[in-house]
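Our working data are protein records whose layout never changes between entries. The record below serves as our worked example for the rest of this section:
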Amino acid sequence: MLKERQTSVRSWLASGEPWVWANAAAVGISVVAVAGLLLLIAIRGLAHFWPAEVRLINFTDQFGQAQVAMGELADMESLTPQRYAEVFGSSDPQTEIVQRWLLKTGNRRYSPPDFQWLFERDVSSIEYPEHAVVLERMEWGNAYGFLVSVYDGDRQVTSGDLWAAFQQRLERARDIRLQIEELEQGTLNRINYQLERLRLERRSLEFAGESASHLAPEEADLNADYLVSESQLRDLYTSLQRDNIELRLASGRVVTTNLAEVVRAWRPNRMSLADKLGHYMSSIWLFLSEQPREANTEGGIFPAIFGTVMMVLLMSVLVTPFGVIAAIYLREYAHQGPFVRLIRIAVNNLAGVPSIVYGVFGLGFFVYFIGGNLDQLFFPEALPAPTFGTPGLLWASLTLALLTVPVVVVSTEEGLTRIPRAIREGSLALGATKAETLFRVILPMASPSILTGVILAVARAAGEVAPLMLVGVVKLAPTLPVDGNFPFVHLERKFMHLGFHIYDVGFQSPNVDAARPLVYATALLLVLIIVVLNLTAIMLRNRLENRYRGVES
């Protein structure tokens, strides 16, 4: 009986079925791990935008004094006696597990810090005041308190609903802020761009020994337009600074806040579920569409989204022809010998080079050598200020194209190898030239493999950070690489990137507790962008595969 069982086990092992189950288990574990990671990021990131209830907590501090704090519950933690000793350097007089709360109290401008740990055992009472107000400010984070009074200029508003009067003036301040942004980013930006163009043109004519007097009328008109717009801007800023409110903090202190500092305000304890859902969607939209504020720890991340997508698309446009041409030469034209094998080994080794090495190469070759020479040849009037001889979008895209080109080369070569030799011979036998066979038969059939290489290249390039820190990415870019000024696409400009934004907010922020939810939200968005870009390429690849299998999609 034992011998039969051993024979059965040997035959089962020899059939390879255990390895099938082992592979299935490994795939299942990987899927669960990835799904769990994405779920954790989504919960931690998206929960940040929900309007949490504001709590008014009375508690006793470590000196036995009665204190009061108001804010949102940001986190909870259970401290074992060992963990308590690690955190506080001494043992807890009580042996049971201790609960403590992290309360986001805000008001960093008046009573820092804006996060406070409280022990549950020290809390005497918790209230949820209906009239508690949350202010999202341009700087200094959130403010929590009670609305005391509203001032329309120097006149205190005494009649009607105080909250409605506040919302009306806040809406007016928001409209003025939009007009200021339109004037600064639109009209004044255009005038400054044109004035800089005239300055460079004047300097170029001076280098050539020619007269620049014909530029004076246009320059005078631009300066006159600038003075008019500047006057309008001053009037708008004066109007923006007109209204104020008084806010009573939990400590009883009354502070005055100018509405120019307030982005929006809400009373979460009086919100219905529908109101909270509307506020939640509005918060997510503002996060996706606004400019960052306060060292990237407040506001939105639209410039980082725009920069990431544009860099990945430009990198894809650059890497695809280089990788495909190299693979075509190696597979279709080069004599298969030791030299070609050596080239393939070199290409495979390039895929394993650390990305920071590519960043150093891009900085030295693309930025300083090529960019510096371009400045000397085509932009001498702008020197010593560099135009292309400085890190920018073009050099970042080229560096990442160089980093990912081995992936495209290998994938394309594999696709070309899988095409049967009979197809090539049949095309040539029908009178087609080698070039016609290549471009009309071979490459269309290999296009799914080419797109597979592009998909892998996009997935890697979108998440790279280290080389970008050297060749174009910055913490905060004042303007986007695309605007309304000719030539409309400015590849020499620096840009923001979601990967670098995550690093900057997560590791360079002075306020770690406030920045942590933004790190999760930005990481989730970066993953979603990579997924969308990859799905687009996968759908295109599947359509091509179906077409060249004889199945019309």
In short: The chain is about 60% helix and 15% strand. The chain has three domains: 55-145, 154-242, 306-547. Residues 299 and 314 are 27 Å apart (CA to CA).
